[in-house]
Design brief:
single chain; alpha+beta; Pyruvoyl-Dependent Histidine Decarboxylase, Chain B; 5-stranded mixed β-sheet; 46% strand
Length: 153
């Protein structure tokens, strides 16, 4: 199994446009995202996001938040733990929080998920996206599940 971890942020004239712009900033704005739960195959390989075929149906774990309250600091966090048998993904968001605390919370949750399953962690990655809202803003962090049929050649 191959995955990519991406983050994006942007503003827009509406909440929907801000979200769409943040997805584009992350490189996943031209595909159809299918939210899935938080499990990975064992020894999942983390790759750079390749060019995806426009309109493809793409599985992902998505953390996203949008705000139209100027001055808000919004953040989306994704944590990935990979073991030999399986992997887990955690997503969380926050507004006007300490980003380091939110990242630590996500790391705690994903470590707990792996421990509960008795799986040793080989690789642990925490990524986040944050911005301060000017008018209407959105941030996203996502694990994108990569299959050959969705990758542009």
């Amino acid at each position: 199994m191959k995955i990519a971890i991406v983050c994006g942020k942007d503003e827009g004239p509406t909440k929907l446009n801000a979200f769409d712009n943040a997805l584009s900033d992350a490189g996943i704005g031209d595909v159809n995202l299918i939210k899935v739960s938080s499990m990975l195959a064992g020894n999942a390989k983390i790759c750079n996001l390749p060019k995806l075929k426009a309109g493809s149906m793409v599985n992902c774990v998505l953390s996203e938040i949008t705000s139209d309250n100027p001055g808000d600091k919004i953040m989306a966090v994704i944590a990935v733990a990979i073991g030999n048998e399986l992997g887990c993904v955690v997503e969380t968001t926050g507004t006007n929080e300490n980003i380091e605390n939110l990242e630590k919370e996500a790391e705690f949750m994903v470590r707990y998920m792996m421990e509960k399953r008795g799986v040793e962690i080989n690789d642990l990655i925490v990524k986040s996206s944050t911005t301060t809202v000017e008018n209407i803003a959105s941030v996203v962090a996502s694990v994108v599940y990569l299959k050959d049929e969705i990758i542009e050649e």
